[in-house]
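User: For documentation purposes, I need each entry recorded in a consistent format: the amino acid sequence on its own, followed directly by the corresponding C-alpha cells. There are two entries in this batch. Please keep commentary to a minimum and don't merge the entries.

Assistant: Recorded as requested. Entry 1:
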Amino acid sequence: MSGCSFYGFQAGSIPSNLNTIAVPLVQDNSISPVTTLDRELTRFFTDRFVNRTRLRLTNNEADADALLSATITGYSSEPTTVGDDDRANANQVRIRVSVQYMDQTKQPPEAMIEREFSASSNYDPVTQGVDGEEAAARDALEQIADDVFSAATSNW
C-alpha cells in the first residue's frame, strides 16, 4: 500500500519549521478539589509532544518554535445515577480546557489550535470516594491531552 504512508502519525506530522516546543505550567481557573490538575495536564502535554514527536522541550517560551499553553476553565463532579436511597451511585467528572498552540516561527505568530477541549470520566463515590474522583480527573485530563495531540498532529 504505497499511498498509506502519507497518513502516518510520525514526526512528519509536525510542520518542518518546528523543532522546539515550550509547554508552560497549565493555568487552573477551575474550582476543583483536585489540586494537581495543572501539573498533571502539563506533564501529559509534555509527554505527548516531546516523547511522541521530534520536538525538543525548551523552557524559554520566547525562543520556542511552538508554544502550547492551556487554561483549565471548568471542573465539575456531578451524580449521573442515583439509588433508591437518593444517594449517588455514580458521579461524572467533567473538565474543560482552553488551549492555544502557536507557531512562533511566523510573524506574527500563528495559532495552529485555539479552542476549548473537554472530557469526562465516571467514578463510584461510595466505594472510591476522593481517590475515585482524582482518578477520574486524571483520566479526563489524559483524554484532553490525547485530543489536543491528535488535533495538533493530524491537520491533513
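Entry 2:
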Amino acid sequence: SQVARLQRVRASRDEAACQKALDALTDAAEHNTGNLLALAVDAARVRATVGEISYALEKCYSRHKAVTRSISGVYGSAFAGDEGFAKIRSDVDAFAKEQGRRPRMLVVKMGQDGHDRGAKVIATAFADIGFDVDIGPLFQTPAEAARQAAENDVHVVGVSSQAAGHKTLVPQLIQALKDEGAGEIMVICGGVIPPQDYAGLRAAGVAAVYGPGTNIPVAAAEMLQLMRERAA
C-alpha cells in the first residue's frame, strides 16, 4: 500500500539530510530568498515526501482554503409558474410551521473530490425551494463534516460524491455523527454513484440516494417526508 511504501522510504532515508533540506525550504520561504522549486527538488532527492515538502511551505504561507459560495433565484426563476415547484415550496412552509424552523441541510464534499458544480446546483436549488442551506468547504474529512453538521443543527447532510469515495467516506461520516452525539441527523447521497452501491449505502444508514437526472422538487418532497417521519 501507499502507506507501507511511505514508511519504507522514511525508514531508509538519511533523516538528518532530509530535515536539513526541509528547513532550508521553510527558511527560504520565510525570508523570500532562494529558488523554492530548486529547494523542493533538493528535498525530494533526499526522499522528503510531497506532504512534508508542502508542510515546509505551509509553515510560512499557510494553506489555501477554497470557499464555496452559492447564488439564489436562478433555479426558482426557471420554475416560475410551475405547479410542482409551488407545491414543494408550500410544503416547506408547512414544515417550518410544524417544526418551528425551516428544514436545514448541509451539503458536503469529502475526501479528494473537488468536483463541486453539482453540489452548488443542489445548494442553490434547495435554497430556492425554501430550505436553509449550508455548504461545507471542499476536501472535508468525515469528522469535520459531522462537526459542522452538529454545530449548525441541521436536519440532513447531503453528500455530493463524484469521485468514488462514497463507500468509505459515507459510513465514516455516519459514525462521526454518532460520535458527535448527532446520530439523529439524516444522511443522503447524490452524484455519480453506481446503482450497485445503493444497497450498501442504505445498509450503512443512508436515508436516500439520488443519481443523475433526479427531479429536484420530487427529491425535496421525499426528504421532507423522511424528516417528518424522523421527527414523529
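Summary note for entry 2:
The first strand starts at residue 104 and ends at 108.
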